[in-house]
Amino acid sequence: MVESVAHNYTISGHLIGMLDRDQRTVNRRKLSTGDLLDACPGCVCITRASLISENSQVENPTAGRCPRWSMQRVKKVLAVVTYLLIVIPTVLSAPSGSMEQQQEDPFWVLNENVQPEDNITQALKAQLAKTIQTQAKIACNKANHSLEEYTKNQFSMTPEQVHQRYNSTSFDWLPSKSDIPKQFGTDVTDGFTRTMEEEMIHLYHQFQKIGVGIEQIVSEYNNCTPNNGADQSVCINFNNMRQDLTTLLRELNMNIGTLGLVRKPDVERDIMPDEDRQVDETTRRIRNWVIYRDYINALEYTIKAFETHF
User: Fold this and answer.
1) Which of 74, 92, 110 is the last residue of a domain?
2) Whether the predicted pLDDT of 227 surpasses 80
């Protein structure tokens, strides 16, 4: 009995085939005999005195004998410790919201086939421009309606104060100033150089970029089980933005297809780097504000652009 017990251990007190199986997964500290005794104080057999080498003879066949339940308990403890050492570092290193995102298609990627219109007239173009403008107004009004409460809850400031403080903050993966030639809180100053058809294709692509940011925020608040009212407000606001942006993208896609136009390649999730996803709470609030700001700014530009064309 003792001989079989000894053969299941190394000299340092490891269970053979358990902790010594694979050291490549994580850097784990080897468990000493003291560790095993701490984990199972009732196991009197796990001492250096009771461990014997494979080539030695057993002088006392009853010395160091353990009850069967004690050995099983040690094995279970070691198995749990090994599992935690492997799993916990992996979980902690996973990007926030990554699992949900990987399981769903991007909401801004639409695979809706639209039959082109054979007879394209100026009246039809005016009608299409009006539908885009109407949907952009709906989305913009709803976003602006929640803006004051949002900045108060997140920054204890007015939207103007937040904008002044973070006016120069931007992200490369969001629309640039040349993409949307308008500043937040101001009217469009530059002339519109794109045709209506070009504007539809261009804005569809720019709103897809914003969709990447909105998806990240929604995924972070996906369960909508906030710790306070401020978090719940963020959750509701950005879920509404996602719904309104989806409707606007569908309208743009429908009109692009009706005119027989070809969209640009869809924007991918990876335009937003991990360094902008895995952030601390302060940086997250600033990042979310920039996405919110650029969303409203792009909507205001869209409204003005299609007013100018028709």
Assistant:
1) 92
2) no
